[in-house]
Amino acid sequence: MSTPNALKIVVMGTGPFAVPSFEAIRKSGDSIVAVVTKPEPPVKSRKGPPPAPVRTWAEENGLPIFDPMIINDDEAVRKLVELAPDLLVVCDYGQILKPQALGVARLGGINLHGSLLPAYRGAAPVQRALLSGDPETGVCVIHMTPRLDGGPVIAKTATAITPDETAGELEERLSELGVELVIQSIDQLRQWDGEQTIGEIQDPELATKAPRLNKREAQIDWTWPRAKIDCHVRGMQPWPIAYSEIEVRSGKPAQRIAVLAVSNVEDADIEDGSNGLVPGQVTGGKDLVVCCGDGLLRIDSLRPAGKNQMSGEQWMRGHQLQRGVAFELPTFE
Question: d(Cα 17, Cα 147) in Å, to the nearest integer?
């Protein structure tokens, strides 16, 4: 397959979000001259390091890999200069390119980002949109600048967030939506004169941040309304996973439970309902039902620390918690 004005492209990425778009570039008439990805971590077990999707994809397709520790250091930039790319295509890479690195390609770089910019600039746009309870999100391709996710938007598309989607499922769907946008953007740049701004300038007044998730913020606050807890549970998957802790036996250490799925329960469906309960307390009975800020929530699926996934009903059969036993609420120093 040949393409008029075929480009020499360096792709930069590490995680799964990048793979569908990189594969589309590989199948196009353009040439991938290098795959830049994170270096492999030291081996700490017999299993070896966890798989890096972009590295795996590059190895399977016999593409040259370049994995500098710091993409902006002089040696790495010299390597990029030697490759003489026309364009950099960046997605889910993990490092911010400085002007010297961006400048090695005559057309600069484009980045596929998992939000409707300028909303959710940062490392966790998909998760933050879900955690915020947004009804929709999308993907954008930007012409890169040294400012994080701040370049002009060349192409974008929006999509509704479905009520039962986890962040992992949404991210996978967005990665597929981004493929056509990346190819369209490359074709626009193929004809670019390098003079006029390409794309729509972002309004900095509308910018919001999407910092990387951390384990501490995964703890559930049962004083939240049910809708927020549901978004929290879905938004924390596949990592770091929403959790709560509960003392199942008096005087014993609290047991940590990863919460994987929840659903609303009406007071009329539970004997005594939420009457007299405060957030975090369970109703007792066969199901694991917890009082929240605005009603009752059933934990449908969970994973106790060190054990396999199970239903809330299965977990209750093994513990038979009495009404009023409480999950711990987060404490902040």
Answer: 21
